[in-house]
Amino acid sequence: MYELLKKDGKAKRGRLHTVHGTIETPVFMNVGTAAAIKGAVSTDDLRQIKTQVELSNTYHLHVRPGDEIVKKLGGLHRFMNWDRPILTDSGGFQVFSLASLRKIKEEGVHFNSHIDGRKIFMGPEESMQIQSNLASTIAMAFDECPPSTADRKYIGNSVDRTARWLKRCKDEMARLNSLPDTINPHQLLFGINQGGIYEDIRIEHAQKITELDLDGYAVGGLAVGESHEEMYRILDAVVPHLPEKKPTYLMGVGTPANILEAVDRGVDFFDCVYPSRNGRHGHVYTNHGKMNLFNAKYELDERPIEEGCGCPACRSYSRAYIRHLLKAKEMLGMRLCVLHNLYFYNTMMEEIRDAIDAGEYQSYKKKKLEGLSGR
Question: How is the cofactor bound (predicted)?
């Protein structure tokens, strides 16, 4: 159940109660695609760096080790030793971005695994079954994520099919949650709004999926090539047509600035690979902009990545040492940068929640954006 605690303009401060604990929103979900955060980050680390929700991927876990295996081992929470909420995305995005050969039909999608080329079929029912086997806290509906460059006619047809698929996802999820051997019979289902950069298609689709009264609603198919301005325009248009008293999730977004702007438009769930991916390449976030620790100027710099930061990297190590680790290709260098970046994101979300609570979101956002841009 989602409680809307407070609003500051359009910014929402909420709380989602789940079977695996309460999620304070706005929240950033830390991405662990194959049931692990890339960069040698353990679930004990996640607890230390204030992670509320871990996100894993249906497609990747279905291909390896196999969702049936995860089910036999007691579900994803037990498998990876994580007792807080997990969101699994439906595999739709991966099917459409990774699979080289695929055929989309009304029943679902036939495609070849990106690992070994074997033929796989996935439709709404299969995606729900896999996610039920994984026993995540929140399952995402199976949708088509059309390229942002697709023409209006293609997007219209695709969105209509996604709406039909959503109804099938809801029915299948209800069936699975009623079975005696289901690990998590309280699994929640979020629907996904699509429509490319066409406001009218997006709005019509939002109205249609709202009627299904789901546990939450995501905006998908953004941050896939369109400009930031276009993304904000779509959010301005579509978020008012999604239920305010349900979580609103912007999938795969984004930079700290993107998050600050989207919170201002009523979004309260986020996920993105940026903090871990950038961290693995020595790029770290600070309140004064992004730093590249490979730069020679940090060779003798004994300061932490950011003064006053409470993350495991900043509490114990200098920029000079972390730079040395990165240059020497020591795994610890990547690990420390990833920990710092995720801590930075999770702390920013805490600050966002405090600012909305205090009714000071606008001034917080302005100050934060100025700092992030390095001014």
Answer: Binds 1 zinc ion per subunit.
